[in-house]
Amino acid sequence: MSLKELIRRRALEEAGFDFAGFASAQDFKEYVKPWAKTIVALGLEAWDEVFDVAIFRAKRDRFDVYYIYEEVMAEKALKLCIYLRDMGFRAEHEPYGLPLKRVAVKAGAGCYGKNSMIINPLYGSRLRLTCVVTDADVEPDPPFEGDLCGECDACVRACPLHAIKEPYRIDARRCVNSLAPPPRDVDTDVLEMAPKLLKRPTENSMILCSICQKVCPYNKRAKNF
């Protein structure tokens, strides 16, 4: 088995990711350290809405914010980093410094959807993304080609606030998820609709709106539990 397939197998079977693809660090050299050769794009299906829970706490002039899916994926990514380090390679989890959607397309995860998220043929837009950067020299996967959305505009029509101003572009002032901490400015009617669209399990937590995902044909899969 090649090094590439060993890493992929480890990411999927041992770390527990649902997608693992490879992109060249050279394509993103302005975002990575000089030693980096390969970016491992990793995806985990958010099969339950609790994955998108944000837990937050106000601290004077700032917020401490934790997203459940980021915490879960960080633990899984660390497993892959340890595996690569045990093989003698450098490896770092890089969840924030890379343009994750661009990397995902390059690594074959899917295409940009009209709801501005990556659409994967199997998991739709429920594939949450992160990356591991390594100096292991691995051949990149072919980038994803094509547009899975086609003529479908279900997400555009379903958004109650018309946040998808045009396909593939979200107007942040019209998206209720902009109110997740730290909140951004939104239009007045968006603020008024927030209690109907944002679930609040507790005083200090929030489940983001996912209407544009729920109507996507690629997300209408049978429950796997």
Which key terms come to mind for this protein?
11 strands; globular
Write a compact overview of the structure shown.
The protein is built from six helices and eleven strands.
Fold and architecture overview:
By secondary structure, this protein is an alpha+beta fold. The chain has two domains: 3-134, no CATH class; 154-219, no CATH class. Helix content is 25%, strand content 22%. It is built from six helices and eleven strands.
Strand content: 15-25%
Q: Distance between termini?
A: 32 Å
Radius of gyration: 18 Å
Main sheet record: 4 strands, antiparallel
The overall strand count is 11
Overall geometry comes to globular
Domain unit count: 2
Mean pLDDT: 93
* Secondary-structure element order, N to C: HEEEEHEHEEEHEEHEH
Structural class: alpha+beta
The helical percent reads 25-40%
User: Which residues form runs of ≥5 with pLDDT under 50?
Assistant: none
Count of helix runs:
6
Q: What is the topology, as strand order, of the major beta sheet? A: 1-2-8-5
